[in-house]
Protein 1
Amino acid sequence: MRRIKDFLGLIKFEHTIFALPFAYVGMLLAARVLPWAGHPSNWPTWAEFLWITVAMGAARTMAMGFNRLVDRVLDARNPRTAARPLVTGKVAVSTAALGTAISGLLLVVAAWRLGPLPLLLLPGALVFLLGYSYTKRFTWMSHFILGFTDGLAPMGAWVAVRGSLFTPTDWPAWVLLATVTLWIGGFDLIYACQDVDFDRAAHLKSIPARFGIATALRWARFSHVGVVLFLALLGWGLGLSWLYWLAWSGIIVLLVYEHRLVAPDDLSRVNMAFFNMNGYISIVFFLGVFGALLNG
């Protein structure tokens, strides 16, 4: 149990809250807003809810565990990450590898239980879930590759419920993918500003290291403007009720506050902007969609 607890601490399992509400939104919209003849009701089944939750948790655990394994040498050299459990030895490499492998197996089982299309698309998702860890070594667009990878969560949930992805009625899944790509990419830009000096010294690629902190923060703002616009498109296209637009307004307020927490010459509140604000945003978004669906 101690080894399990240490492994979950290594991958910051509690941060699954960032992406899980978006997966649930994909699940709810697929079943409720655009009902189709093959689904038994306008709500997801309990089995779909269970296996989507397992798939989401397993995918993030596998990706984070693999990332920690791949980056452990770099983490040891970076003062900000030198105290991570895999670097200090609190978590053994074998423990991290075993936890990552078990999570990958759970993901495969969940995809199988969710239907033939999720299982068919799983290899493509694995390319991003595992490949992201290497992107900082060759492209400064790694922030948005991370965002795209997280954006596969609501898209995967949509596919699990609806069993399709490439028909005209599947457009909300693609809007959710774009939304999460810009949302995660934008706040990863903010977080990466902490490592500018190390990234440059280690010849790692990032937008802050390549273009500077001020430019990176502007890119983050532009990205989050895109988030607001895509969320407006989703609400307008689906005709969601006033509760959705109330949540949309709240998200704007939270994003503005998030960007006011950081400045090129003051990154002391990055963790608050990164963890607190984005956790609130994902929950507000889910509650807005859920409330709008209940409201009809």
Protein 2
Amino acid sequence: MEKVKKRNPVIALVFSIISIGLGQIYNGQLVKGIIIFIGAVLLSLLNFALVRISFLCLYAGIMIGIFYMVVAIIDSIRNAIKNTDYTLKRFNRWYVYLMFFLLSIISSNLILSLNPYQSCRALGDSMLPNLEDGDRVLIDQRYYDFKNSFPMRGDIVLFETPSHEGALFLKRVVAVEGETLVINKSGIYINDLPIMKNWLFYGEENGGLDLYGEGKWLVPDNSVFVLGDNLNRSLDSRFFGPIDIDNIKGKVLYIYWAKNKDRIGLRL
């Protein structure tokens, strides 16, 4: 004899929250629940690609994800209310629900392991005016893996240096391997050519370039020379030397949060 049992919308709500698609399975919509679950996984993977494009894509991805989940939850509640004389199916068993829940946990952990992004907060004023104290930036930890390229001049990177174990720095790549860098009162030169100053902030209005930072360097293989945009306030390669690219943790993409809301979304 078939067992008839009304669906509980509260249970459908809880199931949908703990594992998207599980509410539909509870309501007897096995295929629909699996499709919703797979859709959520694919949407998460798609968002990884979109986030790299711009802050607007990050924001859009978050909004789409929330909308997708809300629609799935509402759908499970509505169907639970409609199923007043629901006939239990073979998969309406506690162990099936548990297996689906465990599958969602495994999938979530796998997705998180694929997440290439890291949040970082800028400290101090060494990167003024492009990065202010307290700005939160998004770091792509696999940017150079995907690009299959060396860090380029102008990139702002997150790195550590053996001379300051445990500390992380945000600085701009100014010279790459094989280049000769000269810093003096008249400016910054790479292979005897003056560097563009569109992101470097120094001069008479900033008290002039720190004499202690003057010098000449040949950037070794597999290394980059980094500087702070605000040269007179920056601890950088002038003092701890070029950075091995193996110590680079990722590339800064854009500011996703700042005290000055006009700065949110600024690509760096």
